[in-house]
């Protein structure tokens, strides 16, 4: 595992920490380690939620390690994009909810990493940006695709083509951030969100995530068919039956995640 990426598991939560002072830039080894952490969390039956956080309060992730990629030729850069893309797709496709906790700047690959997550919880000092055009390139980690799906093409063009930063409150208004809190309350807000997700039935969470993820990628009829298959999977699960019985019996359901 990369020294930049570390994962701990406690109370059904896998916490992935990014530590690469001063700005938590991501290199090739970090993306490889991030992929392995996500796959490990996916397989671990004790993990119900994944949290990704950057060390320090001034920077979540300021982008890729430009000094490293400056040495790359075209073939090496293409390999880097494949490795980083694989890590972000693993986050996006993880059946368990993934929460990104952003304090400070989330630029370039940091914003792209956040966009791959299911929930983005931001401190008031958080700022999102995709400044790649200032380097003569464009986002290469899914930024043009995931951001457009999140905020629409007009706003995505403003953020990408003009390089305009997105402060936390505006990010919340656009749906990029699910909530914005004072920096000193960020950990508490993270714990509350994680606990809320842990209480939800795991199978239903996974099926809901799958259905929503495909909503913009397939025609409506295909999407509705997928939703029905996902619904039946959840309905036939033990938790699905327990939830319905609990509603009828006017009691709180006891989910077993099967």
From TrEMBL:
A GO term, aspect molecular function: isomerase activity
GO biological process: fatty acid beta-oxidation
Keywords (A to Z) from UniProt: Isomerase, Lyase
Cross-referenced SUPFAM superfamilies: ClpP/crotonase
PANTHER family named in the record: ENOYL-COA HYDRATASE, MITOCHONDRIAL, ENOYL-COA HYDRATASE-RELATED
Family note: Belongs to the enoyl-CoA hydratase/isomerase family.
Name this polypeptide is given: Enoyl-CoA hydratase/isomerase
Source organism per UniProt: Alicyclobacillus acidocaldarius (strain Tc-4-1) (Bacillus acidocaldarius)
Lineage, top ranks: Bacteria, Bacillati, Bacillota, Bacilli, Bacillales
């Amino acid at each position: 595992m990369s020294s930049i990426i570390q994962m701990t598991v406690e109370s059904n939560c896998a916490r992935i920490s990014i530590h690469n002072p001063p700005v938590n830039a991501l290199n090739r080894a970090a993306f490889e380690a991030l992929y392995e952490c996500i796959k490990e969390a996916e397989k671990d039956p004790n993990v119900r939620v994944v949290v990704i956080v950057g060390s320090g309060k001034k920077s979540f992730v300021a982008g890729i390690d430009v000094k490293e990629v400056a040495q790359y030729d075209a073939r090496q850069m293409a390999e880097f994009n494949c490795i980083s893309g694989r890590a972000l797709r693993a986050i996006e496709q993880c059946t368990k909810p993934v929460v990104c906790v952003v304090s400070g700047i989330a630029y370039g690959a940091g914003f792209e990493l956040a966009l791959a997550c299911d929930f983005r919880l931001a401190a008031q000092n958080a700022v999102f940006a995709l400044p790649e055009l200032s380097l003569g390139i464009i986002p290469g980690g899914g930024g043009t695709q995931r951001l457009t799906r999140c905020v629409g093409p007009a706003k995505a063009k403003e953020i990408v083509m003009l390089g305009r930063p997105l402060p936390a409150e505006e990010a919340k208004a656009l749906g990029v951030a699910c909530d914005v809190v004072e920096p000193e309350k960020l950990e508490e807000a993270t714990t509350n969100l994680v606990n809320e997700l842990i209480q939800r039935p795991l199978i239903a969470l996974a099926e809901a995530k799958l259905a929503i993820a495909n909503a913009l990628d397939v025609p409506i009829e295909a999407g509705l068919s997928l939703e029905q298959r996902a619904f039946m999977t959840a309905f036939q699960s033990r938790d699905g039956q327990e939830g319905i019985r609990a509603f009828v019996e006017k009691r709180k359901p006891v989910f077993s995640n099967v």
